[in-house]
What does this fold into?
Amino acid sequence: MELNTHFQQLPNNYLFKEIEVRTKAYKTAHPEAKILRLGVGDVTRPLPLPIVDAMHRAIEELAHPETFRGYGPEEGYAWLRQTIIDRDYKPRGVNLDLDEVFISEGAGSELGNLSELFSSANRVAILDPSYPAYVDSSIMAGREIVFLPCHADNGFVPELPAKPADLIYLCFPNNPTGAVLTREQLKVWVDYARQNKSIIIFDGAYEAFIEDPELPHSIYEIEGAKEVAIEVRSYSKTAGFTAVRCGWTVVPKATGLQHMWFRRQCTKYNGTAYVAQRAAEATYTPEGRAGIRANLAHYKGTAQLLSQGLRELGYEVYGGKNAPYIWCRVPKGYNSWSFFDHLLNDCQIVCTPGAGFGPAGEGYVRFSAFSNRKDCEEALKRLQTLA
Ligand code: PLP
It folds into this structure.
């Protein structure tokens, strides 16, 4: 037996574990402290009732012989896939075939699993900073990584890779910088992928935060993208499904990969939970939609409160518009982790150190609009005393 030694190249500390360790140590030393968690990447508002009701009904069906169901289709039920096509794509002028949409248990596992379709000799381009899954799963697969630095000078929009990339992970609206791409900026990437015969894995986990009518919601709104892009979407942040687990992946036939992915799923995935798919379906009903819109409006309000509040306190702030994350430059004399420690020790505020998302994240911290609104208000007061 030989181990996959690529695992030894993974960074030792998983960012969120390290934050927990430091926060717990502080809490143990100061049990009376009211810690304000402003780094939360998870949703915090409860599921809207119409969605919970749909799940109850689905469970009830499973409880009776005449409505019981066993395994569903590996690629998901047609009623959900067709609804996604009709509601998420057709209104944006994107036509997809039913067999190009695959229901998943969320974006996280898909982002790593999709890389099974490609040779480990492929070079991967990844934004720096970025959500850790792209880098970690590429390291596990033994791929060479080209980093695409995103910093204030390029507006957190990456330049094309210096070395040709076979696979490209893009995520917009971006975690952690909150940056978005215009149609023209996204077209640059689609054109690059067409010229270089690369594949873009487009992570649209935060699509629901887009407000600006000019911004593209799907990479397929760009001409030619169906030949070169796989799109990964999730109900996690759109509808509060981080515990429910449901999302979808689009693998267009024009990529030449649809059949491979179907084959892979039939072997390794036995389908998304029926209850989760019924819950996802309920997000499209008028009542379900109203519920998720109310939650999204709340988070968007928190994003605005945080970015405005931080800006008024003199911080250099990015993101927070069309995205739930606020990317804040740390004051002079600090780096990401020392500013994290400073906020924890002197204000009992927990943020997310930017350096944990990649070297270009150094010098920034991330605040999140998923944080409790009252905690954000209190945090801004505490920061005032610090300023
Ligand atoms: N992609 C990005 C950019 C994320 O930030 C996250 C979770 O925070 C995910 C994917 C994973 O989402 P899911 O809950 O659908 O697995």
In short: The two ends are 57 Å apart (CA to CA). The first helix runs from residue 15 to 29. The mean pLDDT is 96.
